[in-house]
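@channel sequence for tomorrow's demo:
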Amino acid sequence: MAGGGDESVVTFETVTVDQWGAVTARSCGQCQVMQEDLDGVGLEMVVVPGGSFLMGSGPGEGYEDERPRHPVTVPAFHLGRYPVTQEQWRAVMGSLPRVRCRGERRPVDRVSWHDAGAFCRRLAQRTGRAYRLPSEAEWEYACRAGTMTAFCYGPTISTDLANYVGEHVYRGGPKGVYRHESTGVGAFPANAFGLHDMHGNVWEWCADAWHGDYTGAPTDGSAWLGPDGVDRAMRGGCWHDPPDICRSAARLRQRPVDGEDFYGFRVALSEWAPAERGDTPSAAGERRSAWSRLRASGHRLSRKERL
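structure tokens (generated this afternoon):
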């Protein structure tokens, strides 16, 4: 069985780069981390503070599926400090899928959206907490970490900061290496929220159904859902992609049954407290979204509504 979890404050370093990809500043930050003990294997969940941001890309950047840029308010939540690793997958699921890039501290890969959902459900059963996939809005908000640039580090990126195909560049950024494989999680600097590997390494599944643009998208941070079987959204890019599609706003459409060499995920959690009896991860997320809409409207929750 999983343990009850430990709380700590983690100090990390993040960097800022200029339009040429040169590091112009290094700064120390701190984040609150809750750790799940999975029979000796840790799962670190960063507390992401709530806030508002502009989701998507503006004129002159990105693609049509990243528009219109629109304001979103995201309640505080927890997000995996790293993509789910192979040792974490084995600790929860019992055995590994036939991974492309083997290594205990590397992200689990060849994972479909259905596989990622099964992991979340199994983890929720073991821990009593309503683990789930993040929404696209939560993912992008967490990736940006207060920035509006193409990458969380600045207007471009280098392979000193992320794992992607360094033979390609983004705007004025430098050429770099093409590693041809994933890297162990945490090999690159964190962003300002203390999250690692948000750009490149492996694509990450989100809860949302695929929509061709953001017309009519939720503004409360919740997942934009759809019927079972529809295509799903992925974020972050991977080691086999150019930097352009590793941007904070970049999106990928994939079938939920697909589990390619570079598909992974990280888990999210609305609240650290154990889920209510009978709750599913999706039900807990939907209830949180309903509460957020009520609070935004000025409605004062009764004790019964809070329970």
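heads up for whoever presents: Helices lie at 86-93, 113-127, 136-144, 281-296, 303-306.
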